[in-house]
Fold these 2 entries.
Entry 1:
Amino acid sequence: MASGQERILRRRIKSIQSTKKITRAMELIAASRIVKAQQRVAAARPYADQVTAVMGNLASGGAGLDHPLLQERDPVRKVGFIVLSADRGLAGAYNSTVIRAGERALQAHQAEGRDYELTLAGRKAEGYFRYRDYRIGEAFSGFSERPTYEDARKVAQAAMARYERGSSEPGGVDQVELVYTRFLSMGTQKVVNVRLLPLERGAIEGAGAGDGPQAAYEFEPEPGQILERLLPRYVEGRVFAAMLDASASEQAARQRAMKAATDNAEELIKNLGIVANKVRQAGITTEIMEIVGGAEALRQAKTDGRTDYFPDTILSRDLLLDHLDRSGAYK
Amino acid sequence: MTLQVELVSPERILYSGEADMVVCRTAGGGEIAFLTGHAPFLGALDTGVVRVKTAAGDQVAAVHGGFVEVRDNRVIILSDVAELAADIDVARAQRAKDAAAGDEDEAVAARARAEARLNAAARA
């Protein structure tokens, strides 16, 4: 018979085994999603590259770079932050790393006397900042694992609207920073903080120059107007690219976390199994000792002739065999 | 000589291939067609239909804004909202068109989008 202690151990092992099955499943799901997320990153690249190239051509075609989205403001009084986190946990340190990077950047600006405005993506970031009573401009969620361009557009539009207002108006900012996790490889993801707005002029001016001699373009409508339409798309594209990177990173982090959890569960099951076996063995040993002791006492009592205390009518001669049969220890 | 055409949306390349002619509609400029040997051109697109004429038949897509770049017999159409005619849900576009009544900017834009979709679907 399993002792009480052993039963408890066996029950724990069983529960850890079912947890292990779940974490293993999550690990496999995450692994397959990383591949999909990477494919989406790759599929989004042609558009982003082309938009950048077109922008370079516009710049060399004479579009004035005096668009508001390109204007550096001095002094910067208020900084907007876009923090891209996940909607779900169970992804190791993924969420806390990116959220804390955002918080640190925010505090660094605060230390220099600048105000902040938060645009959050993902339920985890919202939960964190709301709990700590930060002022949240807007919070988006529900798309961290599979962001669409439409999602990126919403976030980018919110940030651009704030930027266009400027710090002189309520809710406006002079600069926007984007904090997210860049996907470098399966094994490496890095939290980065990049300036989204104003856009870096250098990146635009140099963009078209790379591919051979500049052609004399015809423009319709004029370059300035095209640029005016193109710049917001460029900003949206950058946010979208960041979101895709973040979603690939999220899956990679989740896969690693779930792999670690599965390994831990295995280890626990092994160790608990050893403990449970020891407990069982100890129980059997104790039982044998008791029986042997009891039989010995019986034998001595008989040889001593004090049969009045242990009459055969009360205790069977086959006590030992009888007991062993019932205990089932020797089968 | 043919044109090398790419129709690119932020999420994927919708169409990539050779064509004899590309027709689209620029913002404020009206319809414009590109044949081989066209001078370098850069334009912003209106909400409308893009038609790619190929030897194997026409590819039609509805675009809602976007950009077109023509250079060295390469036509690249960038559009953040673009749908190939084959992917358009005609019934849904029709419903959207019917729902978008009124003169507000939003309704006018929604109607233009729905009409572009219906036109693209009809011309495919």
Note: The longest helix of chain B spans residues 105-123.
Entry 2:
Amino acid sequence: MKLIKWKLCIFGISLLLSCKPGFCVENITSTPAQNIKAQYDENRLRQVASDLRWKKLLHYNQFFPWSGTSGEVDGDGFYFSPKGRVDPLSELKATLSAFEVNQKVGKLNQPAICAFPERLRFLKEQLQIQITAPAKGDCPEYDHFISKMESKTVEIVFSSAYSSNPGSMFGHTLFKFVKGNKSDLLDQGVSFAATVQANNEGGLLYVLYGLFGGYSGDFSFQPYYQKVNEYINSESRDLWEYRLNLSPAETHSLINNLWEIESNSWFDYYFINKNCSYQLLAALEVVKPDWDLSSGWFFVVPAETIKRVSKIPGAITQVRFRPSLKRKLEEGIELLPIKEKVEFKRLINRDVDPDQIDSKDVLSAAIQYVQYFRAEKEGSFDESLREFWKKLLARQNILSQGILVNASATVSPAIALKSPVGNPAPNSGQASAYEQLPQDPPELGHGPFRLSLSQGVFQRGGLDGGGFEEFHIKPAYHDLLNDDRGYLPFSEINFPNLTLRYYPNTAVLNLETLQLVSMTSLSPFSFLEKRASWKVDIKIETPKDLACTNCHVFHSEMGWGATLNLFSPKSLLYGLIGGYLDVGAGLGSFYRFGPSAELGVLTNPFKPYKLRLRVLAYSDIFQPDRPPAFGTLELSQSLSFLPHWEVRLAALSVQGLGSLNYRFSSYSEGKISVNYYF
Amino acid sequence: MKKMIKMIGLMSFSALLVVGSVHAAEDAPRNQGNELSPNQGSNECGLGWQVTKQKTLMGTSTRGTTNYYLSPTWSMTSGTSGCQKHDFAKKDEEAVKYVASNFYPLTAEMAEGRGEYLAGLAQVMGCSDSVASNFGQATQKSFKAITNNADAYETLQNVKHVIENNAILSQNCSATI
């Protein structure tokens, strides 16, 4: 396509037709490139072109871990040379030409020196070129951008997963450009996201486009308060802010490079490897080429990018934790004495008027509750709730003024307990939006990739079946028995994974499981929210209720239900009811389906240890000569040694249920697994 | 050609990674150019950041982003929906947007006289850091007068009056009526 444009332009010039600037960027470089050769020492140009910093400025990176590097900016307008994506020297010469002839480029049709300020700065530094940097007013759009973005340093912000949305269960990262003001709400947030049209949401097309680069990706710039509203207040996600060791000059260079991309071009967006988190790393490498952040990714998980940055010595100078509104509210309620808890409940049920409340803490909790409620149930924020809100504030205002002798005296005991410890608040003297760092930062979590070896024994129909060995491989991500540190607690997302089983007695190697996907979300009912729990599981497996060791069925299953906390937030009791479908040659009529149910207890009494006991029941009414149902009782335990190792013990028993008139070959097994994560 | 190779390469292992598609659906902007989702069921200026959540498989559909910093011609159409009825000066755009976007947490902090949203407002009003606590106390004291049925624009004007009538703040804040 580019070649065609180029040829058309040459053809156009030959016909003395003028080519519009921007459309035929490439042709302009051909003539002045001759001048470049005369003006600069070719060897020096070669040296600069092979400089890693120049390549990173051009976003030269690997697409796959095994491929070579090439320019990753996909849209027109970023590379002046037709060979700019693969030949840094050609791009260097073309850039110099564009600067010299004052070429107009990009989405804003602005002079090249305005569109590429960082290239200009770098080339002036390296080549002592005579091109004059633009004066104030020469580049109004760029000046405006800089006036909004200019910052002292940069943070990478990690947003925890958004449990009610599968699309957000992996977390997210964004940049925060820190201005060093009293309130960081007026800092700038920068995200990289796919541009999806409103009417093109969901569906298979969305998935395909996302997988294969059908969407363009752009950086978006918003005040940080918009991000806080979005994540903290609306979606109940915690934010972890990692301050990077960037100088003001490096920060400026980074802003310049973002400008060079955004005002001229775009990236294609690939959900798996060239996504929101990846492009932040690639941008960082522009100013820190020696950090080596962007290479070697097979797929890019946001928390893993934080891990990669945190492994670089000295890269992170400070970490702060901004809890979600929901977390703050829950903690605030938890800290209230019993009497005030009762008062709080009466207040929000509107059994008592705000004017009758004398506790600031109760009022604070109620004010947060209304904000949370408003964010969760927008449609229900009616006139009466609005009036209630105003009364709460008016009462709080009166009480606060009564106490307000000096600023420090206003800190109530409940809030004082939660004031930051060891984390300097940006706005000391103000109530801090930050909290002490929890013990489960995202960078401490287990790696997503799992390799596993197991040894086990089994019995069938009461007879000893001997031993077996298993090999298992899974590229990602997290299951219910994994250590939850750094992940969404009590959630499961398994990417396609494979388990092979070998029976030494019979020398049989069997495909035990080829799981395509499994997801589970267990959300305990709480005072604040009652959200359904659910699971999906699709796999090819060797079923244990059939008396065979190497038959296979295609199994798909869904369940929907509820979860309760069992005495503490560390233990769950859950029940899921749904249905399943099995298809396979080993089945009487090649298929079976029907209702299924799962009841389980999952507990995490102390951090590295988890235990799950569950009963699974499946109806089996469409198969001849079989009991009407069968069930599995399973006990699993795991002990993790973060970040790499884990040991699991599992025992299961499969029995026919419902009738003794049929013969059912019961099955049981026990196994020990050693898992390695990276 | 390069794209073809990329496509084929990705397709070859995408079957293994279909689930990855849900990841990073994160944050896909659905309302390009409309920074805030429109107020639902109200034309008030200052209901603040309205969350009209429609939870879908792939994301919260009301996410809005804009690249307005790319253009000096960014106009009032975004960020202050409902505020158009007021004819306010360009210099107030950022401040109105700030108050409108943060209306609820901001007024809650104003009642108490402290907090980061209030510190942000002081900054938007051009107050020096040294008078931040004065700003908090003054707006807390006049809380009722400032917020009495006021929308974002009116709230802002009321804050300006408080600044003007306060000896210390009028000397140390640059915002003018």
Note: Chain B touches chain A through 82 residues (CB under 8 Å).
